[in-house]
Amino acid sequence: MTETITKVQADFNQFILGFNTLTLATVSADGIPEASYAPFIRVAGVWYVFVSELAQHTQNLMVMPQASVLLIEAEQNTVNLFARKRASFQMRVHEVSRETSEWHDIIDAFEVRFGDIVSMIRGLSDFHLMALTPISGSFVRGFAQAFVLGGEDMLLVANRREREARASSAGGNRA
Question: Does residue 174 surpass a pLDDT of 70?
């Protein structure tokens, strides 16, 4: 990695640490999109949400196990609303069974991070722990500062513009 990519990676890591909730895009079995949000925790590269089946996004995740996640800079913190810093990810989703140690460990971590509300809802049968595993992503720092994310840890792969230029010059397709 070049020094520039290393600095961008550090910026990306710091950026995602600043969030307790994520914006979640799902789609129903009928193809109807839904935008929502949920508190989350991230453990070993997997993002977890603990959500109620009364919410449309939970129903969508259960029938269409894919989602897109967006973390975006607060409007009041940005210099330019057209160039807000943001990270987005395409996710593969599966439900974590209540009978597993993973479920208990993650719910305990939710309780540490979010407090007593988790103690109240952890026993409610309509709440489901969903694991969202990133399969691709991007990090945008502003105009002409878009980076492709990939790999198991969603580390920066390349500056998007440079990657597309290399692909075009090699006769390849856009990735």
Answer: no
Give 112-171 pLDDT, tens digit per residue: 999 999 999 999 999 999 999 999 999 999 898 899 988 777 776 667 666 555 555 556
Quick check: is 174 in a domain?
no
Q: What is the CATH number of the domain that holds 32?
A: 2.30.110.10
Higher pLDDT, 4 or 57: 57
What does the block give as tokens for 56?
Answer: 């449309």
Residue 85 belongs to some domain of the structure? yes
| Contacts by 69-77, CB closer than 8 A, 24 or more apart | 69/22, 69/23, 69/24, 69/25, 69/132, 69/134, 70/22, 70/23, 70/25, 71/15, 71/16, 71/19, 71/22, 71/23, 72/23, 73/15
Q: In this structure, what token pair is assigned to residue 98? A: 């209540």
Joined together, the tokens standing for residue 151 give 């790999």
The total domain count for the chain is 1
Residue 146: phi and psi, rounded to 5, are -105, 135
Which range marks the domain in which residue 113 is found? 3-169
In a domain, 175, yes or no: no
